[in-house]
Amino acid sequence: MKTITVANQKGGVGKTTTAVTLAHGLVLQGKRVLLVDLDPQGQCATLLGLKPEPGAFNLLVSESPFSQVTRLTDRENLLVILGDRKTSTAQTVLTVQRTPISFLHTRLVIPAQKDGIDYIVIDTSPSVGELQEQALWAADGVLVPCAVDYLATDGVYNIAQTLKRIHEEFKWQGRVLGILPTFYDTVTRESKATLQDLQKRFSGSMLAPIHRATILRECAVEGKTIFEMAQESRAAKQYSELVQYVLKWG
User: Helix H segments across 6-151?
Assistant: First the structure.
């Protein structure tokens, strides 16, 4: 089993869309996947046509059993632990209680492995805190979506520094799966220049970009993934490449 944390300390980068699409894409390849929403906005539920619920809070604070907070979806082999505004309370509680950095791994990863999950995909909030760091430490691989705009490198640099610290202080054994450029627009100079800058700064970690696409916004409105809405679209093909990359990795 592999745990993938999707993270960037900058909002509006397509993080949740990437987490949901990756999870569903892995399911379509025959894998049993658990999608975990650790963002208080609870948007994983919205993108799947579900209602937000305090699954993450119940797992981490109420310490409800793994089986009680994990729910099935109408997409075969896609399980979810959803989040809502109470997730921010969980963040505060974990900080006040000074829970060990391995706490999320113990509450989530170990039970998921026993349950026969092939992949855990964790969506995180852009804030920095105890819960986010635990999600990074629990990851075998960290995927960093990065909107291709003039502030793009800031978020990537910040998450890189956080991972370096977690590795040095807490012996994190995972790796950066890659930096995923999102909202790429071949028409604008800014987009092209920013992508070139990212490729120069992080050449060994860059993945193929996801182009800006209206259909991805329409997917969110409909509560469907790109593989359900427009499987022949460029966006679907680009996310399929990401899925194949992850499968080859582990």
Answer: 15-28, 43-47, 55-60, 66-69, 86-96, 103-104, 110-114, 130-137
